[in-house]
Amino acid sequence: MDLQAAIGELEGLGFRLDLIMPADDPTSAVMSRDGLVVQLGAGSDPAPSLEVPPLVPSLVVTRAGGSSVVGRAGMEYRDLIPDRQGGRFIASHIRITDGGPVPDSVHHHDIRFQVIVCRAGWVRVVYEDQGPPFVLSPGDVVLQPPGIRHRVLEASPGLDVIEVGCPARHPTYLDHALSLPTAVLAPDRDFGGQRFVHHVASSVPWTPSSVPGWEARETAVASATDGLAGVRHLRPTGSAVGPWSHDGELCLRYVTSGAVTVLGETLGEDDTIVIPPGIEHILAPQTTSTELLEITLPA
């Protein structure tokens, strides 16, 4: 069935959208009107759940320019981890081609972890208890803690963002009662054990990193998640040093500029690699302008 067409038909009959999942390629939705609830989607779709599947680690290389699908609110999603590491993680390159107002509503996600990194262009967003709307520019990062209400308001033409979440399949709930921005300002509020983060890249210096031969522009995600996850940009300080390995759940690196060779693969701009735990490797930059986005669990 055509889920978006079915949603539009029911909206024409006065129903409102209450839940949709997954965000990147929706197959299920829940709508309601006057106490009547309708579930749309394939009969085999599981009920919404925050169950985090066991990790199935694998080496993943995703090249730039792959195909995209139209997801929630008309945004284009390119899958960066096609095997989802057994359903534990999802990583998407999200694009809004035309720009302008975004047909989004106040919503929240039932998640363990979710981060947004602005890749190109700009996007104006607003978050519960975090003050007035603000603009994300290239390199800026937002940590969306579990359950925080938010809304995408408008974007520049050609907006690109990188989104990483856990678990891969999680529900998006629409909140029809809350208006944003809220009157309350609570930047340190706890949302499911995490705090909201708005990292402005231009205000953070580069410092030594744990990756040999590279320095980092760290975000506050590690402290805001109590060590659950880390988000940083990396750039080379000289020749490659190593080898290096990790023992965590996830080590994702996305090339934002230049090129890097790792495990026999040369990765260019907008390429992605996920390296499983225990695999020793060297990050060998191919240009002095190389920069990587690195997302790890744990921090």
Summarize the model shown:
The chain has 299 residues and is mostly beta strands. It has helices spanning 3-11, 221-224; strands spanning 16-21, 28-33, 36-41, 60-62, 69-70, 76-79, 90-96, 100-101, 107-109, 113-120, 123-127, 134-136, 141-143, 150-155, 159-166, 172-174, 197-199, 207-208, 214-218, 230-236, 250-257, 260-262, 265-267, 272-274, 284-285, 291-297. It contains 2 helices and 26 strands.
What does this structure look like?
Helices cover 4% and strands 39% of the residues. With 299 residues, the protein is mainly beta. Among the domains are: 1-43, no CATH class; 202-297, Sandwich (Jelly Rolls). The strands form five sheets. It has a seven-stranded antiparallel beta sheet, with no helix packed on it. It is globular, with a radius of gyration of 19 Å. The protein starts with a helix and ends with a strand. The mean pLDDT is 93.
Class based on secondary structure composition and strand pairing: mainly beta
Shape by Cα distribution: globular
User: What spatial order of strands do you see in the largest sheet?
Assistant: 4-24-21-26-20-19-18
Largest sheet: 7 strands, antiparallel
Radius of gyration: 19 Å
**What is the arithmetic mean of pLDDT?**
93
